[in-house]
Structure prediction request, 877 residues.
Amino acid sequence: MNKLKQELYNLLESETTIFDFVQETSLDGLWYWNLENPEEGWINDKFWITLGYDPSDMVGEVNTWLELINPDDLILAKQNFEKHIANPKHSIEQTIRYTHKNGSLVWLKIKGMTIRNEQGVPVRMLGVHINVTEEKRIEVLLADTNRVAKVGSWEVDLITNKVFWSTVTRVIHEVESDFVPDVATGINFYKEGESRETITQCIEKAMTTGEPWDVELQLVTAKGNEVWVRAVGEAEFFEGQCIRLFGVFQDIDERVTATIEHTKTLERLTLATDAAQIGIWDYDVVNNNLIWDDHMYQLYGIKKTDFQGVYEAWTAGVHPDDMERGNKEIEMALADKKPFNTEFRVVWPSGEVKHIRAIATVKRNAAGEGVRITGVNWDITSRRESENQLRESEERFRQMFENAPIGIGLVDTKGKWMKVNDSFLKMSGYTFEELQAGEFHSLTHPDDLEKSLYYAKEINKGNLEKYQFELRYINKKGKTVWVILAVSSVKNKDGKTIYYVVQVIDISEKKKAEDLIVKERAFLQTLIDNLPVNVFVKDLELRKTLLNRKELEFLGITDITDVIGKSDHDLYPKAIADMTKAEELEVINSGEGFVDKEALIIKENGEKSWFLTSKIPLKDADGNVTGILGISYNITKHKLAEEKLRQFSILKSKSKEMEQFAYVASHDLREPLLTIRGYTELLQEDFSENLDKDGQQILGYIQNAVNRMDALIHGLLDYSRLSQVKQLQTVNLSQVLKDVEEDLTAVMKNSNAILCIDELPQLLAYPLEIKLLFQNLISNAIKFKNLEKSPEIHVSSRKVEKGWEFSVKDNGIGIEKRNIKKIFNIFSRLHSKDLYPGTGIGLANCKKIVELHNGTIWVESTPEKGSTFYFTILTDI
Ligand code: ADP
Prediction:
């Protein structure tokens, strides 16, 4: 034994102070326990001090110790103790946790030994406490850190080929806590393929070159889960021989997965920013560094290479007017006064102006200062433009609404006025408030309400999109206003009606004008209908658009609508229609009309009509030909009269010749007749005794014939004299009739005739002729008397237009109807001269005299009852 050690032993036995020094200073607690009486023990002061107690307060030490020891550790200590009793080789060595007075944990390493009696029975136990709290705390902290960091350690002893895995390593591999790996199983946990190959290479390399490894690989755990780990390891060498490999595993699955997710997110973000053309910028305030992604350059219409730095690009791009504001917004955002959310303009090098929307977030340091600002820009030009367009169109609509000369209003789906313009208010006379008090139909005239309600219902039901009709409104003054009402529905994107646009055009003036046109048209129609000419109007297609009654009558059509719109080809034979078409086209094309062109129209039934036609082009205000006006004067009657006149003049000259011949003949015939009469009278006077009865009778016949001849020649002379030119004079007919009556006194007496004369007028006439006229008629009335009755003659007169009508009525033999016409012809007689003597010239003379006085003569007669001769004297001009 070492000499000093021996000395210390001796001192310990003799000097208790030495022992006390040792136990007080070198140990953190000493204990001595009576195994024969477990209640009895001694624990030194240092132990209590280690646990924070005042040793003088400590009594019943064993019990107090029991209170302070961790119960789990006590169980383990008891087991250790029992094992040691049974087998002294089993050492009592254990780290036990105690509770410090302040509640903290105190780790004390316990080491003990038994003291046995002569029989070898343990009777005492001596033990020491060593405070390992500090080491233990570091160890636990490391384990906790490893656990939290998911770092597990491992070691391969290449001499013994033993593998050690820490708890976290086991947890990472998801194996049981008692799992014992070897090198091969350890490597096999790496995922087959790249991971396993990589680790194998790393290990080989480390073992040969000593190069450590630090790789991120995938494991497949015992439960089959794939996890990402960071495997770090290195080799230890001894005398050029690799003896140990050790390292750590770190579960980085979450991080890697997150990274992968992050990469995916980033890819998606890139895709999104690509697709949406979103530019990303990042401004490091501290280092005054601005970064742009590629999209930013695209948004600014510039190339990265054209600028020295991003800041230059930004200043060059931003519209000068927006620059200051932009910078201010960034300052405000950094100062946390206002979030960065703005719009500004960018001017492209081409001069094109783009609208950019920008938002950004600010990263702040602990002091709250903005240190970084990251933002996005995107182009909102087209949105801005469409917004501008929308605004402009809204403005246009507003302008149109407010300034429209027609009334415009908006009505909600319940029929309430939402808005109306000034024109509407003016037309209605109401204020907007007054209109709002009513509803959409309030203005409608009662007679038009039913129709208006019907339309409103239809559009409300969605059966109509819009409607329009004419109706009457009653304005505030109670006056009726004719309007065109147009209503259309305005729908939202779901097709639901949100309101109605109502347009109202005041057409009162137009209505008045229309009424006037209708009236004027009626006036025009009446006017042309009463013209004695054919009038028509045709359009440029030569269809009739207007015609008068005379034209309609000529066409033989009663309904005017059967003619309107028709051309001459629909109404006349083709030859005529071709002719009129040609001349009308000429008028339209030349713009020049013609006047009084004579034309013969022969209808299909052969009827001939002559017209004097004028056709004039109708022109509008600009002088353009719009149609044709035709006026035709039907001259058929004139044409026929002309013809008659021509024939009449031939006849007249013939009859004149006849009259002259009759005059000359009768005058010359009279001469020899007078000679014959003279000689027969001589014969009668001087030689009648020389003649026998027969001779005397013959002489009588000759004298009769001569007398008759004489009367005939007289008559002829009278007849021819009537044609000679004479002078009209005022004639008192009453006087004339008196003279006639006187002249006929003897004849009347012979036949007991009664002559009744009404009051007769004075008139312009040829006196001799008019007397002869009455004389002839009255003579005939007496001569052709009924044998059974005495003749009664009645002369009367009545005023007619331009003169007088006279009648001479008798009760004589009358005249057969068939003979009535011929009795006025010269030499026309109905009876033999024996029954009624006469020459047949009387009535011919009468006719001539009447015609001389512009009149006509006719007779009405009933055989056996009597005749009435009528004649007119039309000399009143
Ligand atoms: P006249 O008397 O010399 O025969 P008129 O010319 O005077 O010739 O008459 C022609 C004919 O008309 C007569 O012959 C007679 O037959 C008929 N006539 C004329 N007047 C009458 C009359 N008043 N009543 C019946 N017959 C008449």
Q: What stands out?
A: DSSP finds 27 helices and 32 strands in the chain. Residues 780-781, 784, 810, 812-813, 815, 823, 828-831, 836, 838-844, 867 surround adenosine-5'-diphosphate (CB under 6 Å). The longest strand covers residues 226-238.
